[in-house]
Structures are given as structure tokens and as C-alpha cells.
Amino acid sequence: MITKKRVILGLMIALIIMVTSLWCCKDGFSVFSKKSEELKDARPKSVISFRDNFFGISCVGTDNVWIVGDWGTILHTSDRGKTWERQDSNTKRPLYGVDFLDLEKGYVVGYGGIMLRTENGGKKWEQVELDTENSLFKVKFITKDKGWVVGERGTIFCTRDGGNEWEEISLEEDVGLNDIVFIDENNGWIVGEFGTVLRTTDGGENWVKQETGTEITFFGIAFSDQNNGWAVGLDGVIMETKDGGATWTELKRITKNPLIGIAYSTKLKRGIAVGLRGTMITTEGTQCEVKPEDVTQCVWRLDPSLRTFLGLNGVAFSEGLDTWIIGDHGTIFHNTEQEKAWRPVS
Do 126 and 91 meet the contact criterion of CB atoms below 8 Å apart? Predict the structure, then answer.
């Protein structure tokens, strides 16, 4: 008797399930499935792709950041990285460097001598014709009128009128120039292949080659003031100067991975260098120690807090004291002084 009741109860449950299924389904799709799809479609789609390799970054104020990379990619955020837009560059060439003078005016450089300019924050980008087919790696403005571009085969361009006209003052030697930094309107440095470091003390009117004692390639350079600076490059090399580059000393290598980018924040008194295989090294404030051989060296330490093995290609500090790191396969990390933790952006 109990078994018979169980059979009847089971049949009733099966009937209820069948009727419910028929009621929920329409045109072969479940109503619940449709609701799920609608919710899925309602979620914002990321504009950051795994195929994106990012090479250049520029920050303006606290909230605005531009990032450039492969396939003509230009990304922009105006809300400190909460949302991103993909701006139309009208090119598929790799873009390596970006610099914004303010929220409206910016420049981008890249493969094959391409230069792009915007006057409206990236809503529209137009190409600037330069007399070169050499790839350009970095662009840097030191005033609203004066800017510099460096690239392969000793390429150097400068403008003194806000980018309307560009003059080529390239080196006669075939040496790749990978990075440029200015700490004020007068003092600047360029680094590149074969241990190359160039120095200017007159705003770029004249450049003097400095002796580094190495033939290794430098990819990045940063200074905390007109005397103290670091150049980083292949095989994890870190060269330090305490006299504006008149002399350079190689620090003890703490990684064999190439270091691609470096930046220093005078407000935070913090330096960060990044490189391949997720490498990040940092130094804080005036952390220096005297070695047994009486050589004073700033302490750079490996920092594993990013927890990534992807290549890292650039680092930048915003005026709001945020830190941004970019790299391969859509890698963007963001760190704020309030959170004091690295947050991956997607």
C-alpha cells in the first residue's frame, strides 16, 4: 500500500515538472535561460582583450589615463580605471609611446615612424607626417611647446611650437634609442643600445654622450633629481648615478630578467622597475646602505606582490599618487595609496 502511494506521488511530481517545463519554454528556449542570457548581456563588456600587449602609458591628473599597444590600440579611462573606452586610432600598427600635455592634447608614436595627434582627448586622432620610417618608441613633452621623440637607428625629433613642426636631429650612428626622461625644462636623459646614455642641460639644444662602462642595452631611465638616477635593461642590469650621469655604477643584479620600464615618484619617494616574466623591483625613499667595500648603493628589492608571470612593459605614477603597471596579454595593474594593494584591471 505504501509502495503504491509512493508510485502515485512520484507520478504526480513528474507531471508537475513536465507541465512547468512546457509553460516555461517558448520557441525551444527556456524562459529562465532567456532571463539568464539577458542578465549576462546586461553586464558591461570589457574592452581589454587577451591579445592586447601594452607598451606605453600616460597619466593626467588623478582620473585620466591613456594606454597604447599592439594593433593600434589606444585605451582611455576618465574615472581612475573603473571603466575604459577604446579610442579609434585609424591604424593597426603597434603603438609604443604616448604623452598627454593636458586632458585635450596628446601624442602617440609607434611602428614605422607613425605619429598620431589629438586635440580633443582622443575623440579624434590624426596622423602627423614625419620624414622617417624608423619605429618611434617614446614621446615626451617638457612644456606645452617643446617635445621630443626617440626611436630606432638613432632617431630623434624635436618640436618647439607645440607639435606643428618637427625637426629631425638624429644621431649619425645606428643605435636604438628606447627611452627619454626630463626632470625639469633643462635636464634630460636618453638611453638605448650599447650602453648609450645622452645628457642635456639646456632643454635639448645640445646632447652629450655619457660613459657608462658597459655595452648592454638600456630600455628605461628615471631620475629623482638632477643628480640621482637609474638606467635599467637587459639581463636585469641596474646602473646608478649620483652625479647626473658623469659616472655610472652597476648595482648588484637581483634578477636575470630584462627590465623594460622604470619610473620614480618624488612625492612618494618610491621607484619601481618592471620587466619580463612579471618581474617588479622597488626602492623606497632614501633607502641606501653602505656595502663592506664602502660603496653606497640604493636598495632595490624584488617585489612579488603582483603575482603574475606575464611580461611587464611600463610603469607610471599619476598626480593623484596612483601607480599603474602595463604589460602583455591585456595586463593592467592599479595601486592606490589608500588601498596599498595591486588590483588587476579587466
Answer: no
Q: Are residues 127 and 13 in the same domain?
A: no
Q: Are residues 149 and 172 in the same domain?
A: yes
H or E element, residue 158? strand 156-159
Q: Is 198 helix (H, G, I), strand (E, B) or coil?
A: strand
Q: Contacts from 100-107 at CB under 8 Å and sequence distance 24+? A: 100/58, 100/60, 100/64, 100/66, 101/141, 101/144, 102/60, 102/144, 103/60, 103/61, 103/64, 105/144, 105/162, 106/58, 106/66, 107/139, 107/141, 107/147, 107/163
Do 33 and 57 share a domain, yes or no? no
Q: What is the mean pLDDT of the chain?
A: 87
- Closest to 325 in 3D by CA, of 338, 308, 339: 308
Q: Mark whether 83 and 28 lie in a shared domain.
A: no
CB 189 within 8 A of CB 175: no
Asked if 18 and 134 sit in the same domain, the reply is no
Rounded to 5°, angle at Cα 188 from 270 and 119: 90
**Percent of the chain whose predicted confidence (pLDDT) is above 70:** 83
Q: H or E stretch including 273?
A: strand 270-275
CATH number of the domain within which 336 lies: 2.130.10.10
Reported pTM: 0.84
Statement to judge: residues 125 and 168 lie in one domain: yes
Angle at 327 between CA 147 and CA 94, to 5 degrees: 55
Residue 38 has pLDDT above 70, yes or no: no
Backbone angles phi, psi at 101, to 5 degrees: -80, -35
Domain encompassing residue 7: 2-40
